[in-house]
Amino acid sequence: MWSWISVALSGFISISALENHHRRQAVLFKMVSLVLLLAMITEPLFSRSMPAIWITIGLVIAMLADGLHTFHLRPKLCFLGFLFAQLCYSKAFWIQLSGNMVWWLPALLIATSIVTFFLLLPQIDTLLFPVTIMGLVLVQLAWASGEVLLQRPSLASLAGFVGSLLFILSALLLAIHDYRHSLPWGQYWISGSYLLAQSLMVASVVLLF
I want to staple 54 with a disulfide (CB 3.0 to 4.6 A). Which of 91, 98, 155, 199 is the partner? Predict the structure, then answer.
């Protein structure tokens, strides 16, 4: 319990620092949050749990991408970092699947994504390519985690699915807030949903042990 409270507290300090343009402090406490998440995943990692290994790799890549994004450095490399982190998270779910898949879930996710895309098109007209690529990666992450939830209903699989949906929400808010117009309390919503999504990814593994 105290570990999760520490993650939330350091995340809140990081978001507040970023909102007040204290970038070094923001990066420091964001790294503290992610390191605490890494510490919580050590037991399943040492047990050589493949989902834990992929989640860990994703967290490490996300730490590097977060640092680049906060200081507005290497935007292309930062974007690729976020993509690879999401792919690592999705790999952690794909390897848990066995047997037949249901096809209504990806159909529902794709249909919802298309509707959302066209609704937000006026807001993201200059970001069509990166938004499309990131959207495809996040949809397949939601598909993978949703399949795990359907095949093995549990609190852990539910945490993973909700986390993947929060990644989608965070990415949409980021695209609008950073590249179109500022949202009220934008950094809190974006960073808060992103950190919560990361925490739920870790919880989806930790709760299995």
Answer: 91
Residue corresponding to tokens 């640092």: 67
16-34 exposure pattern, b = at least 16 Cβ within 10 A, e = fewer:
bbbeeeeeeebbebbbbbb
The model's pTM = 0.89
Overall average pLDDT of the 54-73 stretch: 85
Give the span between the Cα atoms of 153 and 87, in whole angstroms: 22
CA distance 114 to 108: 10
Residue 142's closest CA among 116, 115, 161, 158? 161
Q: DSSP letters along 66-129, please?
A: HHHHHTT--HHHHHHHHHHHHHHHHHHHHTT--SPPPSHHHHHHHHHHHHHHHHHTTTSGGGHH
Which tens digit of pLDDT belongs to each residue from 83-96? 999 999 999 999 99
Residue in the structure block whose two tokens are 């749990």? 49
In Å, what is the CA distance from 1 to each residue of 66, 123, 171? 25, 40, 28
- Taking 80 as the threshold, does the pLDDT of residue 125 lie above it? no
Nearest C-alpha neighbor of 191 from the set 30, 78, 6: 30
Per-residue model confidence as pLDDT tens digits over 27-61: 777 788 888 888 888 777 677 778 889 999 999 99
Residue in 38, 35, 23, 36 with CA at minimum distance from that of residue 68: 23
